[in-house]
Amino acid sequence: MRNQIGAPKGLSLNDPRVRAWLFQILTIVAVVGLGWYLFHNTQTNLQHRGITSGFDFLERSAGFGIAQHLIPYTEQDSYARVFVIGLLNTLLVTFIGIILATLLGFIIGVARLSPNWMINKLATVYVETFRNIPPLLQILFWYFAVFLTLPGPKGSINLSDTFFISNRGLNMPGASLTDGFWPFVVAVLLAVAATALMVRWANRRFEASGQPFHKFWAGLAVMLVIPGLSVLLFGNPLSWEMPQLKGFNFVGGWVLIPELLALTLALTIYTAAFIAEIVRSGIRSVSYGQTEAARSLGLREGPTLRKVIIPQALRVIIPPLTSQYLNLAKNSSLAAGIGYPEMVSLFAGTVLNQTGQAIEVIAITMSVYLAISISISMLMNWYNKRIALIER
């Protein structure tokens, strides 16, 4: 009789590894089959309707104007340039909104923990009000009820003869590059590098000897002196053009259109309400013993919050904060409700209506939002790992 000891086992569904591989193979086959069916069905329907597919339409002339474009644009430019303009406008709102919402959210979140009754209740009212109103309604409110009701350019609100607010937007001084711009950029980079080296040296010195060093004031001096020397040697890096009222509108300078102001303000206020709750819960997660230990060392309330509580709370704050950043980026598509020229209203709206290339346009738009979301997630995950506790 043959000895079966050590003989390899046959394939059996009773083996968990065999079942795992089988289920994965079946899943892959099902996904590929469904994808092929959808692709084949789409191609067949397009051929029956005489619709050509492909991305050649991106090279055709757009033939329409755009209210806001961060790069030069004319109506004769291609749809590809329209795509770039929509992408830049989306990134502009996302970038500004994330910064402002983070600052406002941290302030409101800390205010909710204030022992002052008035500050605490005002912060609570802010959070409970703005996080329970849909963002689209807030956008419409700021656009139609606030900015469009402002006076015209002739009756605009004048702020120090520099900024002018009207129903046409916010007019401000515009900057243009001079010959001293790039030397100034190099000087700023050198100042940043010097400050980083100084901070690293100060930290090592403190760990070795226990002697503190005024890193903030020293870094501030470096950041002012080196770029200041560049300005003295090569001149101002920028020249400024002031807006002037001529006829029925302002000319010169920069203008932030009402659609941009309403969208940014609404998304900032809405997202900050959620960030405030995240900050409050993160601070609450830090043991009160940390505060007592800081007080026993003679630290005041401000340094205790900045140097003891917030660094520990960030480990709890960052993961849900990432979700709010992603929500803000995706909520920027609500700008279609007020006509701000971002990706959805400009590319998935106007371009789609003119070209009829629905599949290509929607695929490009979805890919853009996917890329923006993945980029934000990767950046925040990297930062989260940087501040994570290292266990031994």
Descriptive terms for the model:
two-stranded antiparallel sheet; 392 residues; 7% strand; 4-stranded antiparallel sheet; 8 strands; globular; alpha+beta; MetI-like fold; 11 helices
Describe this structure in words.
By secondary structure, the protein is α+β, with helices and mostly antiparallel strands. The chain has a domain of 201 residues: MetI-like (MetI-like fold), CATH 1.10.3720. It is 64% helix and 7% strand. It contains 11 helices and 8 strands. Strands 1-2-3-8 form a 4-stranded antiparallel sheet. A two-stranded antiparallel ribbon has the order 4-5. A hairpin with a 3-residue loop joins strand 1 and strand 2. Helix 4 crosses helix 7 and helix 10 packs antiparallel against helix 11. It is globular and about 80 Å long. The two termini are 55 Å apart.
In quaternary terms, these chains amount to single chain
CATH homologous superfamily classification of the domain at 79-149 and 258-387? MetI-like
Pattern of helices and strands: HHHHEEEEHHEEEEHHHHH
The helix tally amounts to 11
- In what range is the share of β-strand residues? 5-15%
Rg computed from alpha carbons, rounded to a whole number of angstroms: 28 Å
Largest sheet: 4 strands, antiparallel
Overall geometry: globular
Top CATH class of the domain at 79-149 and 258-387? Mainly Alpha
Low-confidence stretches are 1-7
CATH architecture of the domain at 79-149 and 258-387: Orthogonal Bundle
Through-space gap between termini: 55 Å
